[in-house]
Design brief:
It is a single chain. It is built from four helices and four strands, in the order E-E-H-H-H-E-E-H. It is α+β, with helices and mostly antiparallel strands. A hairpin with a 3-residue loop joins strand 1 and strand 2. It starts with 6 loop residues before the first strand and ends with a helix. It binds zinc ion (ZN) (2 copies).
Length: 122
């Protein structure tokens, strides 16, 4: 009998096929996300963040830095962590790690980073 099809038993969720119980994995990831969201909220609500954010907006002349690189001028709306906050919480308030982005660029970057992260966990 090939080992790939061997069923294993999760104490909580019963039998499953594969490396780990898929329901347990899903629950763990969710808990991790919730925790991170809480940490982020704390940062984004802090006085220190609001000050740093203002500095970055002025430094970047109110323009989206990604659009500038691509040869456009768009009004930046969101201050982005170049090295993601979840990877480098120590750089949360580091002006060198912050850039002003328009909403479209920010969504794009977040999406790209998310899919990269998913690839890594495969
Ligand atoms: Zn399980
Ligand atoms: Zn942009």
């Amino acid at each position: 009998m090939p080992t790939i099809n061997a069923k294993k038993l999760c104490n909580i969720h019963g039998f499953y096929v594969g490396e780990r119980c898929p329901i347990c994995v899903k629950k763990q990831n969710k808990a991790y996300d919730v925790m991170r969201q809480k940490d982020k909220k704390k940062i984004y609500n802090s006085k220190r963040w609001k000050t740093v954010r203002e500095i970055v907006i002025l430094r970047d002349n109110l323009l989206c830095q990604q659009c500038l690189k691509d040869g456009f001028e768009s009004i930046g709306e969101e201050v982005d962590h170049i090295e993601e906050l979840s990877d480098r919480p120590d750089l949360a308030y580091d002006i060198d790690n912050l850039q002003l982005l328009c909403r479209a660029c920010h969504v794009q970057k977040t999406y790209q980073e998310k899919s990269k992260r998913l690839d890594l966990t495969k």
